[in-house]
Amino acid sequence: MRSKPFLTVAHRLAILAYIVVALFPLFWLLKVSVTPNDLLYSEGVRMWPSRATFEHYTFVIAHSAFPTFFKNSLIVAGSTAVAVTILASLAGYALSRFRFRAKYWIVALMLITQMFPLVMLVAPIFKMLSPLGLTNSLTGLIIVYTAFNVPFATFLMQSFFDGIPKDLEEAAMIDGATQFVAFRQIILPLTLPGIAATLGFVFTAAWSELLFALMLISGNDAATFPVGLLTFVSKFSVDFGQMMAAGILALIPACLFFLLIQRYLVQGLTAGAVKG
Amino acid sequence: MASIDIQDIRKSFGAFSVLHGVDLTIRDGEFIVLVGPSGCGKSTLLRMIAGLEDVTSGDIRIDGKRVNDLAPKDRDIAMVFQSYALYPHMSVADNMSYSLKLRRTAKEKIASAVGGAAAKLGLDPLLERRPRALSGGQRQRVAMGRAIVRQPKAFLFDEPLSNLDARLREQMRAEIKKLHGDLHATSIYVTHDQIEAMTLADRIVAMHAGVVQQVGTPLDLYDRPANLFVAGFIGSPGMNFFEGRYLVSGDHADLRLANGVTLPVPRRAGIESGATATLGIRPEHVVLDAHGALEAKVDLIEPTGFGIIMHVSIHDVPMKIFTLDRAMLDPGPAVRVDLPQERLHLFGTQGQRVE
Ligand SMILES: Nc1ncnc2c1ncn2[C@@H]1O[C@H](COP(=O)(O)OP(=O)(O)OP(=O)(O)O)[C@@H](O)[C@H]1O
Ligand SMILES: [Mg+2]
Description:
Chain B: This is Carbohydrate ABC transporter ATP-binding protein (CUT1 family). Chain B: Its main location: membrane. Chain B: Pfam families: ABC_tran, OB_MalK. The structure holds 2 protein chains of 2 kinds. Chain A is an all-alpha fold. Chain A has 2 domains: 1-53, no CATH class; 60-273, MetI-like (MetI-like fold, Orthogonal Bundle), CATH 1.10.3720. Chain A contains 13 helices and no strands. Chain A has helices at 5-33, 37-40, 55-63, 66-97, 103-113, 118-129, 138-162, 166-175, 179-190, 192-207, 211-216, 225-229, 240-265. The two termini of chain A are 26 Å apart. In chain A, 31% of the residues are buried. By secondary structure, chain B is an alpha+beta fold. Chain B folds into 2 domains: 4-233, P-loop containing nucleotide triphosphate hydrolases (Rossmann fold, 3-Layer(aba) Sandwich), CATH 3.40.50; 240-347, CATH 2.40.50.140. Chain B is built from 8 helices and 20 strands. Chain B has helices at residues 42-50, 92-102, 107-121, 136-148, 166-183, 194-200, 218-223, 228-233; strands at residues 4-13, 16-26, 31-35, 57-62, 65-66, 77-80, 154-158, 186-190, 203-208, 211-216, 240-249, 252-257, 262-265, 276-281, 287-288, 294-303, 308-314, 317-323, 334-338, 345-347. The longest helix of chain B is centred in the middle third of the chain and has 18 residues, at 166-183. Classes of the chains: A mainly alpha, B alpha+beta. The site of adenosine-5'-triphosphate has 11 residues of chain B, from strand 2 and helix 1.
């Protein structure tokens, strides 16, 4: 095929335009986070302040409760991601491979849980958690997040298991494996891309969740970072510089996390499993 | 190695019944080929022997031991899948040694078993590769290798060659035959391919709609098909059939077709005069003879290179003839043929063979 230079250029330009639009808010976040307070309103709209500073970062790290929020968020998002992925892998495998009674109803129930706007559920959930002492606690948040993410993650994992030929585990069972060993040694390694996707998806969802965090947590000790960001809004002013600096810092774990799992996300491991 | 004994096996998926009582005794070291049209339950039977499918009723015995409720891993049987089912995240060597590792075989033993199988199948240079870096034929070999490393009680093959091209299939067929000659392993082999069935089998099991139609050596099935189904299924091009009424007059018998034509047939004790019957003759057994008793209009000539398939009609009843005579490439509008009496098959009202 002969390449058409014009089309190639247009193609690249379109991608560039998309990237610029998508990344511009992030750039603005960065720009504001390094703008000294005295220049924030005085310089008009500029792409970069005439003088950059890291004072917001040092303040956020050294003098605010931000490190606590950060730690809480890591605990909550990390635990939720791991718990959801384990549960969803097992449930997804069962839905994909086993025939059992009430399967239809279990799937239907799981879908129903996804139908309600979360706002509706805040009050009942608060009512349920408070006698258990799980409000204002990270454990409570983890439980709620896990419960809300398991259905979708289960369907996600099920579709990954569906994509793995049944022949493979049957071959393993004939080779001498139990169903569980076949699951662990043959199926699970082939599902790593799915597991990575689920981990990533749940981690980011839990990392940025605001509604339940706001409603179930009061006070700074158990606050996660999205709630913590609101502490930069005081009665009379918003400290944009510090807020943005905190925002930039909060992006780091999500980025690291995706760097860690991207190897699995792009891998098409099942290629070559069956006839080709 | 082991014998396999199948007694009145039935299988239903819910209300849908697939196998209706299959009996089969497979001797130690025997090569059994299961043939039958798509959906007749061949794979289901194989998977029940492997333990991948529950038995609805009946018994399966391996070496005299009832295995109905044994997990696949405890049956000590190897299976080659149509899709090969190689583990994509393992090298060829790991694929082949997986079963031995699961059985905690000693390292040196594994190495020698894998080495031996690889040498037999010409896989030595590929041992470190992943399945996705192999051609279809190489994958097929690895699947075979995985089955033979652990010297199981029996081998099950579910259409193992159907994803290969014709040339490769021929080659692998010969290799499987050679392998069986070396190992003398009890084998059950499912195929659609006539030639595979005829060349590989010690005995062929012909199945139709979940019922075994005939069990016998390849030549048994070819020479004395037990019923219309087997007669039509075995052989290519397929057997010619003429339906009519079997009429005895004096010391000879005829088949009177619906259009009034009569064909002389041998007298058979197993059928009454006046009964409806079907006459069968294989295309390769029809004799072309300038003084033949019947005139056949030539409809179509199909040269295959090796021989010629002639589509003709006798009084508007279509028939096929297979001949090696190149002169028949241009036979003119009609030929004369004979249907030799000793080559005729006669089937009764229920389609059963009558002698
Ligand atoms: N899990 C299942 N649930 C319901 N029906 C099934 C199931 N597996 C197989 N069947 C049915 O059982 C019948 C026999 O299937 P089987 O796979 O044994 O056929 P086969 O003889 O191997 O055919 P082919 O030559 O096409 O492979 C088919 O009608 C099929 O639809
Ligand atoms: Mg089949």
